[in-house]
Every structure is written in structure tokens, then in C-alpha cells.
TrEMBL record:
This is Monosaccharide ABC transporter substrate-binding protein, CUT2 family. GO terms for cellular component: outer membrane-bounded periplasmic space. It comes from Actinomyces ruminicola. Its main location: other. Pfam families: Peripla_BP_4 (PF13407). Keywords: Signal. CDD domains: PBP1_ChvE. GO terms for molecular function: carbohydrate binding. InterPro entries: Bact_Solute-Bind_Prot2, ChvE-like, Peripla_BP_I, SBP_2_dom, TAT_signal. Transmembrane segments: none annotated. It comes from the Bacteria. Residues 43-324 form the Periplasmic binding protein domain. Residues 1-21 form the signal peptide.
Length: 372
């Protein structure tokens, strides 16, 4: 079975995981057993920014879960500033935490400060973004990021019926922040699905913003996943390569923040109900889910951060107690210095047909919050 086929097969289990979220959200310290051992220790949590909904939500949820286990938690957000994140982590180290959880801004910029952590015997868990170019990272907890992109690509294939439609379809691709290791996995997953249709001419890119290969993905990356940068880029493509008679049919957006900016550019250019293009996303941010309900975004890949937080809390607890840490992947994530033992969680595709089932019935949002 190919790597792509294996990952798409695994994705089927993601629906079950999402539907179980209503139950897992209710779990407290009882889920993890007796709160002896490492309970009461200090845990540092460093998140990249509070300005993106998913990171704010992730940080607060993880803090709550760890406190329910009896740990003292220092949570810091770094405003997407690498120097600030380094400084915050160093301040945490000075307080002798048992474990530090890091959602990195730049996965290659934390080596020296994390080497200090290793020298002090402080364990490090990379949270959702791989920390690169250092041996001073012990574990990685994330979603199956390659599969996120593959799911976006497969949605495009199905929505446009690329296997049977004659085409061609005007296609505009975007990629994530060039300094985020996950962004390559997202793009690679989508590329592996879509490249046969690009090569056959069913998908054409009028702007020419089509990477020569997966390795060239950063050429279409949006720094810091900025919705304003994405909006400006989409406006430029629409103004330069499209017209009232030549319309874009499909846009690969790697996440919801970028999709918001693209959507604003489309609306300003006069796109509406009769010609809104297929538009992908990721993270199930509230505004984007509301747009899916309104027909202003086609899909998002839901990564249930409650499950991610629970798994991370379990790993922290196992480390603090001196127990064996459970992982399910020891091959995929080479950070340039070592293959980091990882725990991968499967995501799920959300569109207008299953918003209620996956996001509302599970308690992630209320119906009113997403416009149902």
C-alpha cells in the first residue's frame, strides 16, 4: 500500500474520533488515573500566538486539562515573535519545570534554549509543530498533517468530479507559512492527490503560481498564515489574470485564516452564490464554519484540539511520573537531528453536510455560533 493510500485509509477512522469528542470533552483527572506521582509539578506551555483562534483555544484547553491533573501550569503566548518565544521559554527554565510543551513559531529557531532544557533534565514535547535541527526534543504530538493536505486535495477531486469532467478548471494554490514545518506536509499531501490532474491539464493555473515540485512549496507560502497577506495575494491574482468572463474555479487554501483572506478578495471581486469557487481550509475556526454554512467556503479539515490536548496532557503526565510515553509513530518525523517519537491524531473533513454532526452534536460549537 502506498504512503498516500495508507494515510487516506487511516483517515476513515477520523470520523469516529470526531464523534467521540463529546465524550472525551467531559473527561477530567479521573481519565488519567490517580493524580499522585508527578502531580503538583510545574509544566511550562509556550504557544505561538493568541491572535489565531486555534492557538488561543489550544493553550487554554491544555492549561485546564493539566490543572485538572493537579499540575501547576505557566502558559505563555509569544505574539508570533521568535525572540519573544525564546525569552519566555528561558524564563520557564529558570523555574525548573518538569516538562515544557512548545508550539513553535519557527521550528528551527529554538535549538539553543531547548539545549539548555536538556542540560537541566527538562523534557520537551513539540506540540503540533515539529521542532527541527536539535536533539533536545523528546516527543511530538500532532495530527496526521500529510493526510490533512490529502483530504483537501481529495475534496477538490470529488467536488469538481475530476475523474470524469472534461475541464479544464482554473486553479490557484496557496501554501502555509514558510517557517512552519507542518506547511510542507499539508502541501505535499494535497500535491500528491492533485498533481496527476495538473499534469493532464484538467487543472490549470492562469497566474503561474504553481510550484515546480513539492520542494518548491515555499514559493507560494503565506508568511505567518496571515489572512491580510493572503487577501492581498489573491486580489493581485484576480486583478492580473482574471476578468468578468474568466473566473477562478478552485482554490487550495491550507488553513482557515488564509481562506478568510481569500474569501474577502473573492467577495470584493464580485464572486457570489452562482460562481463561488471551491475553497478549502483547515482548523474549523468559527468564522470559517459559518462561511461553510453560508456557502462561502467549501470545506475545512477539523483537527479536534480537545483530542490533541488530551493526548498531550497524557504524555506530560507520563513523563512527569517517569512512565513510558505512548507513541504511535517512530518513522515519519525526522527533524534533521533525530526521528522524533510521535503520537498522530487523525483529522476529519467537514462540509455543509456534516457540520451539525461533527461540530455541533459533539459540543465543539453551538448551532447559533455557526449560523445553523
Amino acid at each position: 500500500m502506498s504512503n498516500l493510500s495508507r494515510r487516506l485509509f487511516i483517515a476513515g477512522g477520523a470520523v469516529t474520533a470526531a464523534l467521540l469528542a463529546a465524550c472525551t470533552a467531559e473527561r477530567t483527572a479521573d481519565y488519567y488515573g490517580d493524580t499522585g506521582g508527578g502531580a503538583g509539578a510545574l509544566i511550562g506551555v509556550s504557544m505561538p500566538t493568541k491572535n489565531l483562534e486555534r492557538w488561543s483555544r489550544d493553550g487554554e484547553n491544555l492549561k485546564r486539562m493539566l490543572e485538572e491533573l493537579g499540575y501547576t501550569v505557566e502558559l505563555q503566548f509569544a505574539d508570533n515573535k521568535v525572540e519573544q518565544q525564546n525569552s519566555q521559554i528561558q524564563t520557564m527554565l529558570n523555574k525548573s519545570p518538569a516538562v515544557i510543551v512548545v508550539g513553535a513559531i519557527d521550528g528551527s529557531a529554538l535549538g539553543p534554549v531547548l539545549q539548555s532544557a536538556a542540560g537541566l533534565g527538562i523534557k520537551v514535547i513539540a506540540y503540533d509543530r515539529l521542532i527541527r535541527d536539535t536533539e533536545a526534543v523528546d516527543y511530538y504530538v500532532t495530527f496526521d498533517n500529510y493526510n490533512v493536505g490529502a483530504m483537501q486535495g481529495q475534496y477538490i477531486v470529488d467536488a469538481l468530479e475530476l475523474d470524469t469532467a472534461s475541464g479544464p478548471f482554473n486553479f490557484e494554490p496557496f501554501a502555509g507559512s514558510p517557517d512552519d514545518n507542518n506547511a510542507r506536509f499539508f502541501f505535499e499531501g494535497a500535491w500528491d492527490v492533485l498533481s496527476p490532474y495538473i499534469e493532464s491539464g484538467k487543472l490549470v493555473c492562469p497566474s503561474g503560481k504553481l510550484p515546480a515540485s513539492v520542494d518548491d512549496w515555499q514559493s507560494i507560502g503565506i508568511q505567518a498564515w496571515s489572512n491580510t497577506t493572503a487577501q492581498a495575494e489573491m486580489e493581485n491574482r484576480l486583478n492580473s489574470f482574471y476578468s468578468t468572463t474568466k473566473r477562478v474555479d478552485v482554490i487550495l487554501s491550507p488553513n482557515d485564516a488564509i481562506a478568510l483572506g481569500i474569501g474577502q478578495a473573492l467577495a470584493s471581486a464580485g464572486y457570489g452564490d452562482d460562481n463561488w469557487p471551491v475553497l478549502t481550509g483547515q482548523d474549523a475556526d468559527q468564522a470559517n464554519v459559518a462561511n461553510i454554512v453560508k456557502g462561502r467556503q467549501s470545506m475545512t479539515v477539523f483537527k479536534d484540539t480537545r483530542l490533541l490536548g488530551e493526548r498531550c496532557a497524557t504524555m506530560v503526565d507520563q513523563l512527569a511520573r517517569g512512565e513510558e510515553v505512548e507513541v504511535n509513530d517512530t518513522e515519519s518525523y525526522d527533524n534533521g537531528q533525530l526521528v522524533v517519537p510521535s503520537y498522530l491524531i487523525d483529522p476529519v473533513t467537514v462540509n455543509a453536510d456534516n457540520v451539525q454532526e461533527v461540530l455541533v452534536d459533539s459540543g465543539y460549537y453551538t448551532a447559533a455560533e455557526v449560523g445553523l
